[in-house]
Design brief:
- The complex is a heterodimer of chains A (303) and B (366).
- Chain A has 303 residues and is mainly alpha-helical.
- Chain A has a single domain, classed as ABC transporter involved in vitamin B12 uptake, BtuC, CATH 1.10.3470.
- Chain A has twelve helices and two strands.
- A two-stranded antiparallel sheet of chain A has the order 1-2.
- In chain A, helix 2 packs across helix 8.
- The longest helix of chain A is centred in the first third of the chain and has 28 residues.
- By secondary structure, chain B is α/β, with parallel strands linked by helices.
- Chain B has two domains: 136 residues, 3-Layer(aba) Sandwich (Rossmann fold); 181 residues, Rossmann fold (3-Layer(aba) Sandwich), CATH 3.40.50.2300.
- About 7% of the residues of chain B have low confidence.
- Classes of the chains: A mainly alpha (303), B alpha/beta (366).
- At the A-B interface, helix 1, helix 10 and helix 11 of A face strand 8, helix 7 and helix 8 of B.
């Protein structure tokens, strides 16, 4: 296996925690809600999934519990941000800190324990292509995440549900006037975002690195939020962004392993640098942001 | 049992004690108050790793002194102003013995020691010394040299790898000695290093281990990681791996090569004894096999018996001081001479090492 195969084989799995969390945040933001608590929601989902899998509940139950748990926690955000119309930035940060605290509390007795991950499934035919084939040997969650990406893209592009979510985010007053409940759409979007962050955390703790360590999410929730802007609120671009981030971080490690003479500090910061540069380029194009940005993002809705 | 505090519960404690002192005014501590010992750590205390080893090193102190000492462990304290504040608080609360468990606590801990001579501070991995402030470090390199010999004997590809946290002298010496030990068995063996630039990111550590395996490395040295992520990934791939501080054999029953274990208790016990006797003297303490602080345990039975005999011979020589891994001739990675034939590096030169030996394939980050 050479460095290129290593990057191809690992890229999708490395991207999955970012992708799942970013897709959830995308739906919430499309409905006009900025939830900055993703990091904490991921940590909370991660610890729930780990505890269940550790006690023999299996991966499926672990993911379900993570999704439900983080969705419930995100509903606390919904109550404060939508019910009491509190500032969404502050509320999101608070929920994020709460989630990290809860994960540390629940995970206390599980510190540095390990569980079994999931087996890799090879995509028939495609996985036999030389070099490129390693891209098609992934665990089931990666395949499901790709399916979720497609499903979300189709929802926003072709379905009424997608249009309703977008309408609520673009112009909540108009959506309200034609008879849609802005609050219930936003609550559902927040819960969906929470569940996806929970899945992302579960993937990190019971599949990708199947162990529990307090703080193991290590800032990935923040990257997920950045990816939503990076992808200018478009599903396909968010997917590409997540893959790029995953690939660039693996590239840095592979470059060191092959003995390339580049400072490791630079390689470690490369994924962030690339993200900042791409964000800069996107922000420079005002038209693109205006076209795809969400008009009522972060604003509480008053009838 | 040690009292375990996270930062959150500490905050509550701070609030309550602040209130209590406001009400109670200032009372001098009674003479029979137990000695408060506080251990401050950058990571959580798990079943394994750096934090675990330091916390475990205080257990015998507790066993020896019983009610005369009160031990508090503060975990997950970020290096920087946060740590300074928390260390100041714990000393202000009457804890007179501080173990600062990370390099980054150096400046804050040193200020405390200078301000209050009645406080004794032990600081991990640093270089500053004061009359009541001792930096301490383990001679991990004595163990990594031995594991280098074992790794070279088992490697089929002739490539070894190391997943390392930060390019600081303590870690660089471990990699260099590992390489030198391996070269005694296979002179042209290569060691690749991936610096993850983090003390704590299990996912990245695991990716780094896989990147090294993709390059053909078939023995991996997990250099200063607190979680079993590297060891567990190596077991899955059937690649030998070893680590520092505490044994992770249970995470890799088949491919665990060995552990360079650290037992800090002799040093901690001696320091607490000295504190009680009033004879504590700050000094740079660099502890190894001879001090019973560093010991290689859990050797893998796959290591050939004749190699094991050789390793034990060298280990005995290191213990009685007749051999040092950093004995010349040693060539630097850039080809220049590091140590002349017959010469041996002094401790002071070892703790300041900022170069790789020839055979380390990855250039050292500047």
């Amino acid at each position: 296996m050479n460095a290129i195969e290593f990057i191809l084989a690992g890229m999708l799995a490395a991207a999955t925690p970012f992708l799942l969390a970013a897709l959830g945040e995308l739906v919430a933001e499309r409905a006009g809600v900025l939830n900055l608590g993703v990091e904490g929601l991921m940590a909370f989902g991660a610890v729930l999934a780990f505890i269940i899998v550790y006690h023999g509940g299996g991966h499926l139950l672990g993911f379900v519990a993570a999704g439900l748990g983080s969705a419930v926690l995100s509903l606390v955000f919904a109550v404060v941000a939508l019910g009491f119309r509190a500032n969404q930035v502050a509320t999101g940060l608070a929920i994020g800190i709460l989630g990290q605290g809860l994960s540390a509390l629940f995970g206390k007795t599980y510190e540095s324990l390990t569980v079994k991950g999931l087996p890799k499934l090879a995509f028939p035919w495609l996985s036999e292509i030389p070099i490129l084939g390693s891209l098609f040997i992934q665990d089931i969650v990666v395949w499901l995440s790709l399916a979720a990406t497609l499903a979300l893209w189709a929802m926003f592009a072709y379905t009424k549900a997608g249009l309703v979510v977008r309408a609520v985010g673009e112009n909540p007053k108009a959506a309200h006037a034609i008879g849609y409940s802005v609050t219930s759409v936003r609550v559902s979007a927040i819960a969906f975002g929470g569940a996806m962050a929970g899945f992302a955390g579960a993937y990190a703790a019971v599949v990708y690195t199947p162990l529990w360590a307090d703080g193991m999410i290590a800032g990935r929730g923040w990257i997920a939020i950045a990816l939503v802007v990076f992808g200018t609120w478009l599903t396909g671009r968010i997917f590409l962004g997540a893959c790029l981030f995953g690939a660039v971080s693996l590239m840095g490690l592979a470059a060191q392993a092959t003995g390339l003479d580049v400072p490791s500090q630079l390689l470690s910061s490369l994924p962030y640098l690339v993200t900042i540069i791409v964000l800069g380029i996107i922000s420079a194009d005002r038209r693109l942001l205006k076209l795809n940005g969400v008009a009522s993002l972060g604003e509480p809705f008053e009838r | 049992m040690l009292t375990n505090l996270t930062r959150r519960t500490l905050m509550k404690g701070v609030a309550v004690s602040g209130l209590a002192s406001a009400i109670g005014g200032r009372f001098a501590l009674a003479a029979d108050e137990p000695l408060g010992i506080t251990l401050v750590l950058p990571s959580p205390v798990g079943d394994v790793g750096w934090g675990h080893a330091l916390a475990a090193g205080l257990e015998p102190v507790k066993a020896a002194y019983g009610d005369k000492v009160k031990i508090t462990v503060l975990e997950n304290i970020a290096e920087g102003p946060d740590a300074d504040r928390i260390m100041n608080k714990t000393v202000a609360d009457g804890n007179k013995f501080l173990v600062a468990g990370s390099f980054g606590y150096q400046n804050g801990a040193l200020q405390i020691a200078r301000r209050d001579p009645s406080v004794t501070v032990l600081h991990a991995s640093g270089f500053q010394v004061a009359p009541n402030f001792s930096p301490f470090a383990a001679k991990y390199f004595q163990g990594t040299y031995l594991l280098g010999m074992a790794a070279a004997a088992l490697s089929k590809t002739g490539k070894l790898g190391s997943v390392s946290a930060f390019a600081i002298p303590e870690l660089i010496t471990s990699i260099n000695a590992f390489t030198l030990g391996a070269q005694t068995v296979k002179p042209d063996i290569e060691v690749s290093v991936v610096w993850v630039n983090s003390w704590f990111d299990p996912a990245k550590e695991q990716e780094a281990a896989k990147a090294l395996m993709a390059q053909g490395c078939d023995v991996i040295f997990s250099n200063a990681q607190d979680t079993p992520s590297v060891i567990a990934a190596c077991e899955e791939a059937g690649v030998y791996a070893f680590n520092l501080n505490s044994s992770m054999k249970k995470y890799a029953p088949k491919t665990y090569l060995g552990c360079i274990a650290t037992d800090w208790s002799p040093f901690f016990k001696a320091s607490v004894d000295a504190h009680f006797a009033g004879s504590f003297k700050g000094a740079n303490t660099f502890l190894g096999v001879a001090d019973k602080v560093v010991e290689v345990v859990d050797w893998n039975p796959d290591i050939p018996a004749d190699m094991m005999t050789k390793i034990k011979e060298i280990e005995a020589k290191i213990a009685d001081g007749s051999f040092s891994p950093f004995t010349g001739p040693i060539t630097k990675a850039d080809g220049s001479e590091a140590v002349a034939a017959g010469a041996t590096l002094a401790d002071g030169e070892i703790v300041a090492m900022d170069w790789h030996v020839k055979g380390v394939a990855t250039p050292l980050p500047k």
